[in-house]
Amino acid sequence: MAIRFDKLGVVIAAIAAYAAFLAPFATFRANRIVPGEGRLILDALPAVSGPLLLALVVVAIVVALLKTPLAWRLVVSVVLLVALALAIGMAGGFLTPPGNTFARVSPASGFWLLIFAFTLLLADVLTRLELSPFVRLAVLLIAAVAVGMLLASGAWDSLSILKEYANRADTFWAEARKHVTLALGSLLAAVVVGLPLGILCHRVEALRAGVLNVLNIIQTIPSIALFGMLIGPLGWVALHVPGASAIGIRGIGTAPAFVALFLYSLLPVVANTVVGLAGVPKAANEAARGMGMTDWQRLSGVEFPLAFPVILTGIRIVLVQNIGLATIAALIGGGGFGVFVFQGVGQTAMDLVLLGAVPTVALAFAAGIVLDAIIELTATARRKEAVA
Amino acid sequence: MIEIENITKRYDKQTVVNDVSMVVEPRTIAAIVGTSGSGKTTLLRMINRLVEPTSGTIKLDGVDNHSLPDYELRRSIGYAIQGHGLFPHRTVAQNIATVPLLLGWDRERIDERVDELLKLFQLDPADFGPRYPHELSGGQQQRVGVARALAAKPNVLLMDEPFGALDPIIRTKAQEDLLAIQKHFGTTIILVTHDMEEAVHLGHKIAVMDGGKLVQYARPAEILAKPASSFVETLVGSSERPFRLLSLGRVGDAVEKGSAEGEAIPADASQRDALAELLWTGKPALPVKDTDGKALGRVTVDGLVKLAARPA
User: Fold this and answer.
1) In what order do the strands lie in the sheet with B14-24?
2) What is the CATH number of domain A169-387?
3) Which Gene3D superfamilies does the record match to this protein (chain A) (predicted)?
4) How many Å apart are CA B119 and CA B183, to the nearest integer?
5) CB contacts, 8 Å: A284 with chain B
6) Cβ neighbours, 10 Å, residue A261
7) C-alpha torsion sign, points A333, A339, A341, A343
8) Strand B2-11 to strand B55-60: parallel, antiparallel, or no bridges (unpaired)?
9) Minimal Cα distance from A282: which residue of B?
């Protein structure tokens, strides 16, 4: 039998081979701001573990490279991700000299590339398995619990990012709450305003082009510029509208960040509402009217349910976009994970940057998966739309 | 009964329906025929007030159709359109239940009615009720569309090119079904079509519209025999006229005494079909039998040809 290669597997194998043998697995630094030195897998791990991890990677590369059963690929990718997660924690303990509290050990490019390669393999397997939305949510939950358990067990405590966390444990959760509040709150506001606006644009054709163009222009304003532009008007409101400053409206801080995120969120929500409603079969609408549905019954019973999956897609875009964008709010004192990112950049402490970036990415990733599952569930509940 | 009195619809300066008056008797089918842009659909849509007239009144069973809010009026009138307009996100049963639900019928009565209608349209309720519209064939979708229009037992059913999207074979079947249903419920039907053949076949009376005006409103035989204008004559199609006239009559009415050899023709077949059969088999006469198979006599080419001639 001829040996057959898996196309994606070739890419994964190449990345994994480079990452495992040539790239540094962990970085060691004498303190948190000096440049570090890379360590290969064999140097970064204690005696048996290093070769063992390398052996696992080699097996995984072979499995990824060839056309192998999905079950093998699934097992291999999960085993490797778990092994890598454990190994990096082990490297932290191994490389840090005993009793030294200044030295920092952080994951290096080799580790990240290996994680990337096997996440890609896992994602490919999960896609090919065509899992139901519920199973995908369960997989996400298991992954979250696993990461949570690793964090709680202290296996990663010797890594630099967790040392940064240990120094900031109290502010971390406060900023996390702010981050989520900013991202979700602005989304909620955008939905509350955007849905009716989208419906209005759908019903009143004269409004449509104007509203969408204005929202489009807002979308093209760079975020930092938009923050800046909001300082003036919001500062004025805080000064002149009674009670405004009492509820937290100021030229800088959470208010302009919230408003900016809200403005960015409007276009996807309004545009998808308009597109969704426009996609409702004309005959169904006409029949609904002809059978005596009131405007409201037609909207809630026919138009909205049919447009819903499209609207939800807009909401998904907004949520993922907002979780990322909320990072920038820290620039104007809005709080959120961005606080760590900008502090880290200011101190050239990459570990601190990661403390802000990693949770942001994880949150956006998880939000994307959850909403994708919801979109699929609503679409299957309503079945495929009739071929018009 | 539907009384349309001096109804006019103007958009800006364009008059789409121009001073139309006509009466549709209860339990009959009126077919409105015309080319596109003749105002036939607008006229139909003014009956359930999807379009508001500029002037004139429409009475349903003696009551002005403006005496109710428009949505309540529409719930009392069946409405079926081209391309069926079924709701893709609702099952067949839910689709049919639309108007009863709007009227607040209780669950049991709705379920009973849905089952009754599905059976009437030869769709097994257990099989088709839970399906979604995209899981049906075009002909089945159309039947569900009509069933949905009839769900709340309306006295009046409006149909806008209901069979327009069907292929010829399914279309013929759908027309037969409609005639049977109309007899069964005694519904008054106004049907818009651009197809004179369909109008002659289905309509007790035919209204011909041209440029917003009602050109002629009469029984099919009269429309064929005495077209009111050259437009009507064109619409009827002069080369088709004798055959359309024959299609109105039943073989039972053309039976002559005597006997003939060959396959018997049923008495309820149309005279047109009988003539076609005679010409095709090359025989001057064929026997006729009634539905019980009893011989009634014979039908002849000569007899039918006389019936196809323009009535005096």
Assistant:
1) B14-24, B2-11, B55-60, B63-64
2) 1.10.3720.10
3) MetI-like
4) 16
5) 85-88
6) 27
7) positive
8) antiparallel
9) B85
Strand A26-29, strand B63-64: pairing: unpaired
Pairwise CA distance, residues A314 & A310, whole Å: 7
The tens digit of pLDDT for each residue in A305-335 reads: 999 989 999 999 999 999 998 898 888 888 8
Do B89 and A385 lie within an 8 Å CB cutoff?
A: yes
Q: Which residues of B touch A382 (CB under 8 A)?
A: 88-89
CA B8 – CA A217 distance, rounded (Å): 47
Tell me which of B89, B91, B98 to substitute to probe the interface with A (most A C-beta atoms closer than 10 Å).
B89
* Touching B: A residues 240-279, CB under 8 Å: none
Q: Is residue A342 within 8 Å of A353, Cβ to Cβ?
A: no
CB contact under 8 A, B88 and A293: no
Under 8 Å between Cβ of B206 and B33: yes
- Tokens read off for A192: 């509350």
How far apart are alpha carbons A256 and A333 in whole angstroms? 10
Taking CB atoms and an 8 Å limit, are A290 and B88 in contact across chains?
A: no
B215 phi and psi, to 5 degrees?
-85, -40
Every domain of chain A and the residues it spans: 7-160, 169-387
Task: Give the residue from chain B lying closest to A379, CA to CA.
Answer: B89
Task: Output the tens digit of pLDDT for each of chain A's 388 residues.
Answer: 567 888 888 999 999 999 988 989 888 888 877 788 888 888 888 888 888 999 999 999 999 888 888 888 999 999 999 999 888 888 888 888 877 778 888 888 899 999 999 999 998 998 888 888 888 899 899 999 999 998 888 888 888 888 888 888 888 999 999 999 999 999 999 999 999 999 999 988 888 888 888 888 888 888 778 877 887 787 787 778 777 777 777 777 788 888 888 988 999 999 999 999 999 998 899 999 999 999 999 999 999 999 998 999 999 999 999 999 889 888 888 888 989 999 888 887 888 888 899 999 999 999 999 998 888 887 765 554 433 3
Q: What is d(CA A1, CA A381) in angstroms, rounded to the nearest whole number? A: 45
* Per-10-residue mean pLDDT, chain B, length 312: 93 92 94 91 94 94 91 93 88 94 94 93 92 90 92 93 85 89 92 90 93 93 88 83 85 85 86 89 87 85 86 71
Minimal-distance CA residue of chain B relative to A304? B89
Q: What gap in Å lies between CA B247 and CA B172, rounded to an integer?
A: 14
CB contact under 8 A, B85 and A305: no
Sheet containing B77-81, strands listed edge to edge, beginning at the edge strand earlier in sequence: B77-81, B156-160, B188-193, B29-34, B205-210, B213-218
Does the CB of A296 have a partner CB in chain B at under 8 Å? Answer: no
The span from the CA of B163 to the CA of B43, in Å, is 19
CA angle B28/B32/B33 to nearest 5° reads 135
Question: For A306, left (φ over 0), alpha (ψ -120 to 50), or beta?
Answer: alpha
Q: Where does A53-115 show beta strands of DSSP type E?
A: 104-107
Residue B249: both structure tokens together: 């009559």
Q: Which residues contact A322 (CB under 8 A, 6 or more apart)?
A: A182, A183, A184, A186, A187, A261, A264, A265
Report d(CA B25, CA B23) in Å as an integer: 6
